[in-house]
Amino acid sequence: MPRHIFSKKAHRLNEDQDVHPPRKQEKRPNLFLRLLAFLLTVAMVLGAVFLIVNYDKLNFDAVKRWFAYRDLERGEGGQAESFPYDGDSSSTFASLDGDLLVCSSTGVRLYSASGQVYVDRTVTMEHPVAVAAGSTALAYDAGGRVLLVCRDREEVFSLELEEDEEILSADVNDSGWMVTVTQESGYKGVVTVYDSQFQLKMQVSLSSRFIADAALSPDNRTVALLTMGLDDSAFTSRVELFPTTGTSTEELEPQASVQVGNQVILELTWDSNGIWAVGESDIYHLDAAAALTGSYSYTGRYLKGFSVDGSGTAALLLGKYRAGSAAELVVIDGEGQTIAALAMDEQVLSISAAGRYISVLTADRLDIYNQELENYHTLEGTQSARKALQRADGSVMLVGNKTARVYLPQ
Questions:
Q1: Cα separation, 361 vs 382, whole angstroms
Q2: Per-residue pLDDT at 29
Q3: Residue 188's closest CA among 214, 209, 161, 165?
Q4: Helices and strands (H and E) in the chain: how many
Q5: Is the whole-model pTM more than 0.85?
Q6: Domain map of the chain by residue range?
Q7: What is the per-residue DSSP string for 266-315?
Q8: What dihedral do alpha carbons 193, 164, 132, 398 form, nearest 10°?
Q9: Model confidence over 361-401: pLDDT tens digits?
Q10: What is the dihedral of CA 27, 32, 33, 39, to 10 degrees?
């Protein structure tokens, strides 16, 4: 064969090999790795299901408390060393990010869990009130003219009304928005809404009905007013909703309005589950559109104490007689249904709810329950504590006449 013909064939053969390279033999998946991946997937799914089903039984809050208070010295019983606070018999208290806000007739002070003073403001108040939500706390003089705001362990805002004005109530939500109800000449109530930077967002003035209280929605879009007046010649309390957008308005028509009985409403609170209106003989729960979702009547019994700061529940301490130690602790949901009830045979000094915990303080013992009133922890010996402030992580601030301390369930 001629040499040049052989070279052409060889060249074509090389081109074919370049275009169609020989196939590599495919490797079969490793059966062991496939089995391992399957088992890991099953374990993750089962683990997630287990956490969901047993969330309430697992003590995740103990881990939270360890991180939050890891630098706080405490004894074997879980109580930190007590610290003195400056206050008097008129003092009111609020728990703020693990700190204690004390509002008294002589001033406003903010203490850490170990007693370090962050805010110390001297101001005269006849009826001091302290409230807190999220990372913001208010201290104001009910019926007076002074209001202070604390955040990030410092005073960040203050308000002083004119001589002919007075503060009826004030509240703050988890976003740091604030609402005040004031009495001003010519009106039966003025509601003012401030954003988290304390810029005025909305104001409404009413002359037709008295405004006793107000609460802001979690999304800051709506404010609920508690109004009192006459409907068809009969005294009624109503919850009325107004938008927080817009400028100053007079006699603005509410977006929604619902009657909450012919009784005095003691507290109006708006949380992520709706609006609680606590009355002298009934408690009401409304949704975000002011539609009634449930109510619970305790007519014939005395409301000795209550807390509506639990997650979707209200805790009521009810007694057949105004005096005496016999009472019943009742927990209800937003539909007005009883979740749990527990008889109390000792004098209850304080009840407080936060998250899924409810604390009950008696003369010598602190009991912490879950929302089904199953005992979570008991502390024997409270060192003359008179008030308990429950926190969502399960810890409790115990406040006495002159000292306070943190209790961390072990």
A1: 8
A2: 58
A3: 209
A4: 3, 33
A5: no
A6: 300-410
A7: EEEEEETTEEEEEESSEEEEE-TTS-EEEEEE-TTSEEEEEE--BSSEEE
A8: -170
A9: 999 899 999 999 999 999 998 989 999 999 999 999 999 99
A10: 150
Cα distance between residue 82 and residue 292, in whole Å: 44
Please, what's the largest Cα pairwise distance for the chain?
Answer: 126
pLDDT of residue 57 exceeding 60, the answer is no
Amino acid at 19: V
CB 331 within 8 A of CB 358: yes
**Residue 5 pLDDT:** 47
3-state secondary structure of 205: strand
| β-bridge pairing 357-361 and 365-370 | antiparallel
Structure tokens at 6: 């052989």
Q: Tell me how far CA of residue 241 lies from CA of 83, 209, 355, 390, in angstroms.
A: 43, 14, 26, 30
Place of tokens 């100053």: 248
The pLDDT mean for the chain works out to: 89
The C-alpha atoms of residue 93 and residue 102 are separated, in whole angstroms, by: 5
For 300-410, the fitting CATH number among 3.40.630.30, 3.30.230.70, 2.120.10.30, 2.40.420.20 is: 2.120.10.30
Tell the residue number behind the tokens 């304390």, with chain if given: 198
The string of DSSP codes covering 349-385 is -EEEEEBTEEEEE-SSEEEEEETT--EEEEEE--TT-
- Label residue 296 exposed, middle or buried (CB < 10 Å: 0-12, 13-18, 19+): middle
Handedness of CA 73, 75, 78, 81 (dihedral sign): negative
- State which H helix or E strand residue 36 sits in: helix 31-53
Looking at the predicted structure, is the pLDDT value of residue 13 above 90? no
Other CB atoms within 10 A of residue 368 CB: 22
